[in-house]
Fold each of these.
Amino acid sequence: MTQQAEASQKLKPHKIWQDGHMPQPCAIVIFGATGDLAQRKLLPTLAHLMHDHPLPQSFCIVAFARRPLDDEQWRAMALKSINTYMPEDDRLDEEGQKQFASHLFYCQSTFEDSQGYQKLKQLLEKLDREQGTAGNRLFYLATPPETDSQIIAQLGAAGLSHPGQGAENGHEEHGNHSNNHGKSWARIIIEKPFGHDLATAQKLNRDLGRVFRENQIYRIDHYMGKETVQNILAFRFSNGIFEPLWNQRYIDHVQITVAESLGIGTRAEFYESEGAIRDIVQNHIMQVLCLTGMEPPVAFDAEAIRDEKVKLLRAINPLTPDEAKQDVVRAQYVAGEVDGKHVVGYKEEQGVKPDSTTETFVALKFFIENWRWEDVPFYIRTGKRLPKRSTEVTIQFKRVPHQLYKPSETKGLVPNRLTIRIQPDEGIALKIGAKVPGAANQLSSVDMSFSYNQAFGIESPEAYERLIADCILGDSTLFIRRDEIEASWRIIDSITKVWKQLPPRRCILIKLEPGGLLRRMGCLSAMDVPGITLSCLWHDAAEARVYIS
Ligand SMILES: NC(=O)c1ccc[n+]([C@@H]2O[C@H](COP(=O)([O-])OP(=O)(O)OC[C@H]3O[C@@H](n4cnc5c(N)ncnc54)[C@H](OP(=O)(O)O)[C@@H]3O)[C@@H](O)[C@H]2O)c1
């Protein structure tokens, strides 16, 4: 390929600050700044944001962490991270690194020590005076979930849930709509998992509510920062031809798949307590489900969109114990080979109990009980060590009411199917029937395809970049509201409570009979990966093998 052709294939940079939306100066305080999320995602994202989409000069990042470091040691640590984790063609040159480092500050404390929060308060006030952070604070809790309530209470006790006095017109945010015009603000981002079940999520919401107003709270799910997830709304509500078909009259079923090819890696402790249903279904899949199924909002704003998402979640009845047994399958991956290399099974992973019943795969069926979706099954599935990494939503339309062609002529034909690929290879494909060229009447399904990269030639922002930028701007559209998170847990609890009561079963092999459980559940195709026994997925196969624990 010529250099010119290569250059023309290079994606153009995206815009993150829309016209008229300029970020205010602020201090971002990262709790858990030495942890995996902060080092691998947050710091590289902030470095990119600062370098490519200039943040105001008076912008600071404060690490609140327990290791005995000073500002210079913290800067060296942060630079090492961004040089390791930023994509190669994004890395900052020496001057850029120096610039970035000059915005970093360190406050040493444990989460438990109230003195530490006083120290933090003094540091933030100093930054307001010396760096011009204008009293604006964003607290990012990249922390073990069990420490969140402690940190929230300590922030409240230290008076840090209110903005500082740095702004000329220093006022708190009031009312439902947060904006930046002339007011200073304090906001908090809470990472997933938000609670372990409904009761713990409600408790965390109460703990937050004692210290912060709802419009200061940003519950993050990084899936909502993905362009392709946001595009579900754009696709549905900006195209006149699909919305009239988007209902039970024309849609046979919907499938939402989040498949990962990797195992649990080093996250055994976390995964053992969460499993696939809490790690993926309760948050990412429920968000995608909401955007796919919700009614049109009255406006494109945070409250209107989240109102519709909550309405949709409320239309999903918690599963009865019988439904939870019949319509939900869970499984664990077993040992096998991937790319010629032996990989261990879940129970053999370091840190996993040999008798663990934690599911690494879950497939289930929901119904949304409203006019639009009556009797349309939503098949959900997610798992680790699956044949390929893929997140997609498939809308399967009903067959034509009367088939004119002979069965022998339509063997290669499937009903219309719209697939929204969220990752990788982001795009949309619509399967349509077409005549194979030649004298015979032979029909086949073909794809009409749209690829994000090819269509726009613009790089997509990293999910965290979009979400952090939105939080700085005070736009909570892509964040999860209190009632939304609780509605989602109510559904998940109806399944996990039944699981808790079931005796752990030995692994059994399920055959997928035509019309049998897995086929009905949308686990419609066997994709055999050498040695990996868990192989139920996707469309049109006669058999799938699933180990259920
Ligand atoms: N990692 C990811 O990709 C990812 C993705 C989505 C969500 N999350 C969520 O983000 C949160 C953080 O995850 P992580 O993977 O970054 O966890 P992690 O690597 O275990 O980091 C935890 C951080 O908290 C600090 N910490 C723990 N207890 C403390 C205490 N008592 N006082 C002061 N500091 C303390 C640790 O400090 P030390 O370094 O000194 O131990 C470390 O900086 C979790 O809720 C996780 O579920 C993570």
Note: Residues 32-38, 65-67, 110-112, 142-145, 147, 191-193 surround NAP (CB under 6 Å).
Amino acid sequence: MKLTYYILGLLALVTSDATGNQAEDGSSLKNCQNIREKGFVEVGHYVVYNTVNNTVEAIMIHCDEKDGMLQLMDKEDGTAGRSVARNCKELQDQGVSDDGPNIIYPFSNHPDTPILVLCDQTTRGGGWTVIIRRDDSYDDLTDFGRTFEEYAAGFGDVNYDFYIGNHVIHALTNPSQNELLVTTEDTDGETGYAHYQYFHIGDRDEWDLKPYTMSVGLYTGTIGDGLGYHVGMGFSTIDQDNDISVGDCAAPWGGGYGGGGWWYRACYHACLTGPYGTMDFRWYSEAGSYYVLNKAQMMVRPSTCT
Ligand SMILES: [Ca+2]
């Protein structure tokens, strides 16, 4: 145990400004050796940065004993030697104030499973974990016409456009009350937001409920309550129809709408997964009116009001 406490003391000295997994000048972290030189000595997952086509991209790597890292023993109170966060709000509470990719451990039943996520630590107080990002300015755009299993697991790249996965959204919104912030930019370049004080995604298998049923409420914002129409709906995709339409709202072009997975009813007011450059990537504002979008983001954080 003496060794443990010596190492923890060393950690406190050299990483006092970076209690998360990422140093402030994260772009200099390219491998485990760089991470060790920054004073991070513990076996675990870290964010590193590679330059690809003049763009800095974050990826997650694992550094272990053969990289010169140390397997720290658990503390006497039984908690792990390494501080981990379940979401971006907990990272913020640990002193991580930078926007960008970081590592969280959101699964209460698999607390050692890390995922690379995008954190927003500045908008409206920060602490947000981004669950979907669409942005048509990227070079290689992600196809959002995906299967139920792909939407469950998540797809895309946190450096660009992505969907974090219904499995993760359920884990993020389940243990506590969460709020949701939707931000949009329409085809005229106008930006707006919708804030919901309450947001929750059910589990994949719940008695008497469709998979990943959405609850959302207490709207304020500038673009209208686009999600209100979708309350209580399960998640539908090109290969799984959980909507209440006689048709199939998630059917791809030709059969229905844009093919994106969504909490369709019959069929939708807002949909943030439709194809770029079409009216199926849009946000409802009021009866008969909606914004066609170029960019959109949804992000969640534990609610400050309970
Ligand atoms: Ca249907």
Note: The pocket of calcium ion is lined by residues 241, 243, 245, 247-248 (CB under 6 Å).
Amino acid sequence: MTVLDTPAWRPRADAAPLLPDQEPYRLLGTPAAAELDPGLLRALYGQLVRGRRYNRQATALTKQGRLAVYPSSTGQEACEIAAALALGPRDWLFPSYRDTLAVVARGVDPVEALTLLRGDWHTGYDPRVHRVAPLSTPLSTQLPHAVGLAHAARLSGDAVAALAMVGDGGTSEGDFHEALNFAAVWHAPVVFLVQNNGFAISVPLAKQTAAPTFAHKAVGYGMPGRLVDGNDAPAVHRVLTDAMNRARDGGGPTLVEAVTYRIDAHTNADDATRYRDDDEVAAWRAHDPIELLEREMTARGLLDDDGRQRAADEAETLAADLRERMHADPALDPMELFAHVYAEQTPQLREQAAQLRAELAAEAEADRAQVAEPRS
Ligand SMILES: Cc1ncc(C[n+]2csc(CCOP(=O)(O)OP(=O)(O)O)c2C)c(N)n1
Ligand SMILES: [Mg+2]
């Protein structure tokens, strides 16, 4: 007798429908692109161009000391923008530190979206206003949060879905496993978007996983896996929109892998030339998300030189506003360090707060004395 003869045993699900396609799903450059809504293409294009300019401006702000760090998503704009546009008004976004563009495309103020990266301890925006969780620096911790929110929404009969974004490196975290397992067991309305950009800082894909694709990991949890060309904005938008609709309609979670590439270094503090070849970067530049979309729109008569210039001008306006507002010094109260740590402060914290308050008062007194008696 083998386990197969045991009446109690049977597979819980047919694995075949959960398997991703062999090739990443594409729309641009295929006959199906002719059916794409011009309004959607225009919206994606404008946001992609503005997003790239935002990345460039934010990186420049790190060099001017206005931002502590900036993880650029240049090359990955199609994933960022398509993710934001695939959300319904009541859905929630759970971003990682690289997903500022998705956060801004969702409607968060471009300056407020940078608060955390500026070094402030605040999130910078009220997560409830646009339904955007804080940008998560600890890898994958946003995933169980997304599952919890989605599960709670389902329990209360609220047709809300959550979209959680994570990198290829983040899939090796325990939180990734726990989130996907709970999501599938609870049938939670959540979509996981893995942006496979080839690297986790200097760790290449080959050292990250031996799985055929990240999308295949879905099968082990009992949810469908979808594979998409992450530089094809309408394709990412289609795949995520379908998955979010499915989640909202009670169909359960989906794992989407978007195959893309990080054109810039990991952050301004990283030198990518130390671990990857220029040839590889050049090959991905030839598969640029903005150029792919431009080609399609130009061929369909939806974009000409004027349209390109208009998009570039709008991007410049955004960058100028970002520059101007980021150059204004924020008014910070050092005493806020002690707020919101505990509902009731510990004796040690009270002592430290008193010490800082005394130091600040002494500094202010010294400043006043200096003003009263200016040095000759
Ligand atoms: C829990 C945790 N461990 C380690 C780190 C340090 N760390 C920051 S980014 C990063 C690489 C993540 O790579 P990936 O998930 O592929 O995202 P990408 O940066 O490529 O967008 C690591 C290891 C961290 N932030 N959090
Ligand atoms: Mg990565």
Note: Residues 49 and 289 are 10 Å apart (CA to CA).
